[in-house]
Amino acid sequence: LTQPGTMPMSSMSKEALIGTATLGVVFTVGVWIGKKYFHPHTLSSLLKSHKMKNDPLMNYVLDHSLREHSVLKKLRLCTLGHPKCEMMVACEHAQLMGNLARLINAKKVLEIGVYTGYNALNMALILPDDGKVIACDINEDYISIGKPFWKEAGVDHKIELRIKPAIQTLEELLTAGEAETFDFAFIDADKVNMDEYYERSLRLLRRGGVMAIDNVLWGGKVLNPDKNDLDTQSIHRLNEKIVQDTRVIVSMLTIADGVTLAIKI
Ligand code: SAM
Ligand code: CA
């Protein structure tokens, strides 16, 4: 069996060593990340993540731009051991959002779709001490993986969890009079409700507030949306709407799985 590699600062492809064990024939293939061995059943999830592709240019980008807080890195590596790790936000994408939030002096952030909370932690780390991330998810099991890291980083008091369908949380925030009070919103939950999240987040954002919408390219499926594929249909419909939406200025970035930045005018 191969030896564990030592872990460089950034790119996952350098961190992963494909290991084989043989007894005449290959009987297992796994991955070492740092000191942790990943069983073959998690390997396919890992390989789906663009961070695991052996792309020298991507490695170069990460090596020359990623400034990842040590606890954030720990959470990323821990999440990579989870069977649904492909759901985690890309680290370079999270860093961009953190930089934008810093630029606009964000204090109040909406996270729609938390998973293990990589981006919730990323945002909490850059917010001032009285800043807040309102973190919306329906799955407490995923969140329980991230929580100890939020605590370790000393920013758990800035992350306010709302465990219920995100539409309900957004409606409650609007009813509570919080329209136009948020600085930043990240839409990254289920895809069929993307427009519901977009409309409500737009009302919750202040003028000049930034919305980031993830997975707008959906692995390229938006080029030819299957009429039975509701996720792709929903993403494509929202993409078509946003480009015409005069309430926002917009950029669609090809980072990760495609990210639209919509800034409220
Ligand atoms: N932003 C996360 C990160 O920083 O790694 C990744 C989020 S993951 C792609 C999507 C999350 O949306 C999952 O944790 C899932 O439980 C959650 N989700 C799915 N449907 C939801 C809903 N109706 N309301 C709130 N959260 C939902
Ligand atoms: Ca996503």
TrEMBL record:
The keyword Disulfide bond is annotated on this UniProt entry: no
Signal sequence, renumbered to the chain: none
Highest taxon, organism lineage: Eukaryota
Pfam families: Methyltransf_3
Family listed: Belongs to the class I-like SAM-binding methyltransferase superfamily. Cation-dependent O-methyltransferase family.
Originating organism: Latimeria chalumnae
This protein's name: Catechol-O-methyltransferase domain containing 1
Single GO biological process annotation from the record: methylation
